[in-house]
Amino acid sequence: SSSSSSFYLRLGMEGVELSPPGESSLTRRCVIATSTFEEEKPNCLNFGMGQIFTVLRESEDNNWVYCEAEGLQGWVPMSYVKDFDETEGEWQDEEYFGQYATIKLHHEMLSDTARNEGYRRGIELAAPLHIKNKVVMDVGCGSGLLSLFCAREGAKKVHAVEASNFFKHAKQVIKDNGYSSVVNVVHGRVESLEEEDVPGKVDCIVSEWMGTMLIFEYMIESGCFLVPLTIV
Fold first, then answer.
1. Which residues of 195-217 are buried (b: 16+ CB within 10 A; e: fewer)?
2. pTM for the complete prediction?
3. Catalytic residue positions, numbered
């Protein structure tokens, strides 16, 4: 408990002793989680990959750091984090999303008839319960294909979110197909959306997140950001 002279980590970590948090002479720095940590350990934070923390102090054995994030404080294992460089995320985002701003890449995906038919059929099957008269979010809409499928199946509103500059083409495609009144194209990362971007809650999420060999696009983290909803 917080009244004891030291903290002990249990549930498989017996014997690891952490000094209680207090004043520290450490220079404040930030770290970012490199993987998810979900273990019920007293005084420890559970977190997902990509979570950023402010380090308040370190354990004597340097295996743990006492951190703060989003108003919560607790111990974090050093093996799950690395020093955070703000400029690193910026150039990685630019490189990642930059490749999706090219027409060539989208032409390749739109030329994959089996892929597109599979998504169309999936949305068609899900439509009666999850899409018709519902508010839908398309995470990483690209050319807007899935958004158009949802609009055609009777969605009340579709928020098509695209972080790359290809969102301009998605807007034009949706306009040319006559669904501008239904599909709202939002430029930005889904993790950074504000209330004015997507008013209220959505009922269903659609996303082409798998990519080549199921992992190339690696949008699993962005999908998990919106877990409490129906995902197609």
1. eeebeeebbbbbbbbeeeeeeeb
2. 0.55
3. 208, 217
